[in-house]
Amino acid sequence: MAGQKNSMGSKFEEVREILDSVKQKDRVAVCLDTCHAYAAGYDLHVEKAVEKTLAKFDETIGLEDLRVVHLNDSEGGLGSGLDRHEHIGMGYIGTSGFKAILHNKAIRERPLILETPIDERRGNAGNLETVRRLAK
Question: What residues contact 85, with CB distance under 8 A and at least 6 apart?
Answer without folding.
Answer: 35, 72, 73, 74, 75, 115, 116, 117
